[in-house]
From TrEMBL:
<dbReference type="InterPro" id="IPR003495">
    <property type="entry name" value="CobW/HypB/UreG_nucleotide-bd"/>
</dbReference>
<protein>
    <submittedName>
        <fullName>Cobalamin biosynthesis protein CobW</fullName>
    </submittedName>
</protein>
<dbReference type="Pfam" id="PF07683">
    <property type="entry name" value="CobW_C"/>
</dbReference>
<comment type="function">
    <text>Zinc chaperone that directly transfers zinc cofactor to target proteins, thereby activating them. Zinc is transferred from the CXCC motif in the GTPase domain to the zinc binding site in target proteins in a process requiring GTP hydrolysis.</text>
</comment>
<feature type="domain" description="CobW C-terminal">
    <location>
        <begin position="252"/>
        <end position="372"/>
    </location>
</feature>
<dbReference type="InterPro" id="IPR011629">
    <property type="entry name" value="CobW-like_C"/>
</dbReference>
<dbReference type="InterPro" id="IPR051927">
    <property type="entry name" value="Zn_Chap_cDPG_Synth"/>
</dbReference>
<dbReference type="Pfam" id="PF02492">
    <property type="entry name" value="cobW"/>
</dbReference>
<dbReference type="InterPro" id="IPR027417">
    <property type="entry name" value="P-loop_NTPase"/>
</dbReference>
Length: 401
């Protein structure tokens, strides 16, 4: 029996892994390919898992989708959960292809080493996504990434640069993401800057997560021989805490905000301008505004960029829509689903994960908490009050810098 092909997607926080995976699944569905997917999220909230499971191609009920949340999949406990997930996924039906999306803080080495010794699987690609905007803004078009990494090595520091460099070193494909915002000269400069880190890897320019699925799951397997020396040199350090440059006593943390109240649109807008710093690497989740209380909104922030996207309608608003012409049975099913959500406002609620440096994350969360509607404002919303809302009204997907 032939081995099951495996593709691994790596990349630092906010590099676009989930966007790419969604595009891959769309192409797979159009091509009548049925991949199985494992999504890893270092947060307990598992936003990425919710986004992926909402697609037609994969679902938990189909047995081809599993999430590993609350832990890095490259940690010892994460590798154990990966093994359990693979056993579960392959128990009843043999997958034709497995795609693994790792969390942003995960290191490739433990997964590469794991699949090296598993004959039932054939590791095809270790793909690292690199945020080209981040390299342009924070590393002088990528030219300062290697010098900063070298300085970390000299000073005995394990910083973010170490993780990004080592993700690239273990890859056989590197995808420069968000290049739609850059001119060709800048993209070329970034590509040339990171090329010395792995001369064997393809560096591919991508926009909006678009990648031809034909470039994945190829006949040739991953070349373990090329990383043997790297594995021996780095094995003991890959799960050490990251020392974040310029900050004393800072570690990478993921904290969750849970509230059923909506955000005040103007206060959230002002907070984005004032409190987003380089120390808040990633925040993501679902929320709602009183000014558009029918739609569920997806918040997606990476470094200083905020994305806003409509993901659907709250059931609490849909059930009141007379144009839907629900039967009594359908209405009862909807109401039961609404009642199963712990919220004062039907199924409306806010769930956000914030990832970054401890102090910066705490400051940002404190600012976000002040954006929720106060009790008096909730009563005003119930009575039909309008709220100042500077966010664009007609959004399918919004990018705000």
């Amino acid at each position: 029996m032939s081995s099951i092909p495996v593709t691994i997607l790596h990349g630092f926080l906010g590099s676009g892994k989930t966007t790419l995976l969604r595009k891959i699944l769309q192409q797979a569905s159009d091509s009548n390919i049925t991949p199985s997917v494992i999504v890893n999220d270092m947060s307990e909230l598992d936003v990425d898992g919710v986004l992926i499971s909402s697609m037609d191609a994969v679902h938990r009920d189909k047995g081809n989708f599993i999430t590993v949340s609350g832990v890095s999949i490259s940690s010892p406990d994460g590798v154990k959960q990966l093994k359990q997930s693979l056993n579960t996924m392959c128990e009843d039906k043999r997958p034709s292809w497995i795609v693994i999306e790792t969390s942003g803080s995960s290191h490739p080495l433990p997964l590469v080493e794991y699949f090296k010794h598993k004959r039932e699987f054939a590791l095809k690609d270790v793909i690292t996504l690199v945020d080209a905007i981040w390299l342009r803004d924070d590393y002088q078009q990528g030219t300062q990434l290697i010098p900063q990494w070298q300085e970390n090595l000299r000073s005995g520091k394990r910083g973010i640069e170490n993780l990004l460099v080592e993700q690239i070193m273990f890859s056989n494909q590197v995808l420069l993401t968000k290049t739609e915002k850059l001119d060709n000269d800048t993209v070329q400069t970034i590509a040339k800057s990171i090329h010395p880190l792995n001369v064997y890897a393809e560096i591919i320019k991508t926009s909006w997560g678009n990648l031809d699925i034909k470039s994945l799951n190829r006949e040739q397997n991953y070349n373990f021989f090329l990383v043997e020396q790297l594995i021996s040199e780095l094995r003991d350090t890959v799960n050490e805490p990251l020392n974040l440059s310029g900050k004393q006593g800072q570690t990478l943390v993921a904290k969750v905000i849970k509230d059923d109240r909506p955000f005040h649109p103007q206060r959230l807008w002002d907070t984005c301008h004032k409190y987003l710093t380089k120390g808040v690497f990633r925040s993501k989740g679902f929320f709602w505004f009183p000014s558009r209380d029918d739609v569920a909104l997806l918040w997606s922030q990476a470094n200083g960029n905020v994305g806003l996207e409509v993901t659907g309608f709250w059931r609490a608003s849909v059930i009141l829509d007379e144009d839907q012409k629900f039967t009594d049975e359908h209405r009862q099913i909807l109401q039961e689903k609404i009642d199963n959500v712990e919220s004062r406002f039907g199924d409306r609620r806010c769930r956000l994960t914030v990832i970054g440096q401890v102090n910066e994350v705490d400051h940002f969360i404190e600012a976000l908490q002040k954006c929720f509607l106060k009790d008096s404002e909730i009563e005003q919303w119930k009575s039909g009050k309008t709220f100042d809302d500077p966010w664009p009204k007609n959004i399918a997907k919004l990018k705000y810098n």
